[in-house]
């Protein structure tokens, strides 16, 4: 165990931090004895009993580790109180711009990223932005975030805010889409428990089908339209409706909120 291989997660006992920790341990990116969970309470939360190290002193964790992951609420970003000059710092805090991160963490090597609690089962999408990092730091960042699911380096920091809106929350906006289908079924006389079971099964099966295919979602839509059956009629009606614009409006509202939260 060397300092460079150790990882600290500030806020690591929380929903996102513990999910990332779970993914890193499961994929062998870090051993439990080299994984520091830092929080104000000094508790391990969901990681209790895994052998991870805990501390209520963020600087103790930052000094001991070659990589520091920032997973505290954006409102707490200003209270980090660390100087991680020799560490690679990866932030998954919503809305906190990269321009603030170097000062907040006292660091020179900073990645702005996003992930989701789906990391716990390796199903997160984790975009990251760090144009000025060297190859070794980029490779380390990719290894850490790829343990959480799919990871992609993006070319614009604004895309981190965008994905904070789209892929950060799980089930997020998809839960609302499922609710809309269930509510319509209920309005047509279906018992609410049946409508909800149907909606959950629809999104489980559809999500697995989309994930198993290399085709983009648009190709699946076109295939159903070309099939010219019942779904085609529904898709054409939805394509003619304001649905796509409403979804974009919702995402942009989330993006705006993230940017507001992250300004400090
Ligand atoms: N939850 C989600 O779905 C997602 C969250 N995020 C981002 O992840 C970050 C964490 O969110 P989430 O996990 O939901 O929050 P939680 O409240 O679940 O966890 C945050 C943890 O941070 C700890 N904490 C709070 N303040 C400090 C501090 N000053 N120093 C050290 N630890 C601190 C808390 O522990 P204690 O009280 O013991 O200090 C808490 O357990 C946020 O920036 C959020 O925007 C991003 C995408 C999705
Ligand atoms: O809703 C939220 O604030 C959290 C952060 C990004 C996604 N989910």
Automatic annotation (TrEMBL):
It is found in: Cytoplasm. One of its GO terms (molecular function) is pyrroline-5-carboxylate reductase activity. This is Pyrroline-5-carboxylate reductase. Pathway: Amino-acid biosynthesis; L-proline biosynthesis; L-proline from L-glutamate 5-semialdehyde: step 1/1. It comes from Roseisalinus antarcticus. It catalyses: L-proline + NADP(+) = (S)-1-pyrroline-5-carboxylate + NADPH + 2 H(+); L-proline + NAD(+) = (S)-1-pyrroline-5-carboxylate + NADH + 2 H(+). Its main location: cytoplasm. The keyword Mitochondrion does not apply. InterPro entries: 6-PGluconate_DH-like_C_sf, NAD(P)-bd_dom_sf, P5C_Rdtase_cat_N, P5CR_dimer, Pyrroline-COOH_reductase. NADP(+) binds at residues 10-16, 39, 71-74. Residues 7-95 form the Pyrroline-5-carboxylate reductase catalytic N-terminal domain. Belongs to the pyrroline-5-carboxylate reductase family. The keyword Transcription does not apply. Its EC number is 1.5.1.2. Catalyzes the reduction of 1-pyrroline-5-carboxylate (PCA) to L-proline. Residues 157-261 form the Pyrroline-5-carboxylate reductase dimerisation domain. One of its GO terms (cellular component) is cytoplasm. It holds the Pfam family F420_oxidored. Keywords: Amino-acid biosynthesis, Cytoplasm, NADP, Oxidoreductase, Proline biosynthesis. One of its GO terms (biological process) is L-proline biosynthetic process.
């Amino acid at each position: 165990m060397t300092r460079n291989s150790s990882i600290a997660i500030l806020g690591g006992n929380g929903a996102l931090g513990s999910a990332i920790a779970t993914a890193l341990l499961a994929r062998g990116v870090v051993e439990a004895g080299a994984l520091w969970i830092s929080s104000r309470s000094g508790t391990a939360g969901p990681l209790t009993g895994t052998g991870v190290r805990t501390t209520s002193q963020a600087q103790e964790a930052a000094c001991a580790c070659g990589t520091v992951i920032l997973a505290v609420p954006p409102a707490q970003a200003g209270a980090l109180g660390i100087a991680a000059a020799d560490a690679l710092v990866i932030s998954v805090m919503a809305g906190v711009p990269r321009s603030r991160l170097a000062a907040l963490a006292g660091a020179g090597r900073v990645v702005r990223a996003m992930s989701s609690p789906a990391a716990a089962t390796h199903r997160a999408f984790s975009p990251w932005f760090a144009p000025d990092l060297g190859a070794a730091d980029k490779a380390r960042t990719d290894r850490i975030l790829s343990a959480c699911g799919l990871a992609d380096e993006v070319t614009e920091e604004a895309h981190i805010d965008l994905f904070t809106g789209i892929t950060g929350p799980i089930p997020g906006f998809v839960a609302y889409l499922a609710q809309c289908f269930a509510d319509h079924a209920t309005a047509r006389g279906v018992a609410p428990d049946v409508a909800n079971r149907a909606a959950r099964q629809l999104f489980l099966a559809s999500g697995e089908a989309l994930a198993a295919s290399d085709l983009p979602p648009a190709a699946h839509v076109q295939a159903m339209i070309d099939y010219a059956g019942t779904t085609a009629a529904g898709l054409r009606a939805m394509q003619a409706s304001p649905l796509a614009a409403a979804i974009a409006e919702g995402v942009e509202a989330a993006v705006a909120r993230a940017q507001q939260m992250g300004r400090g």
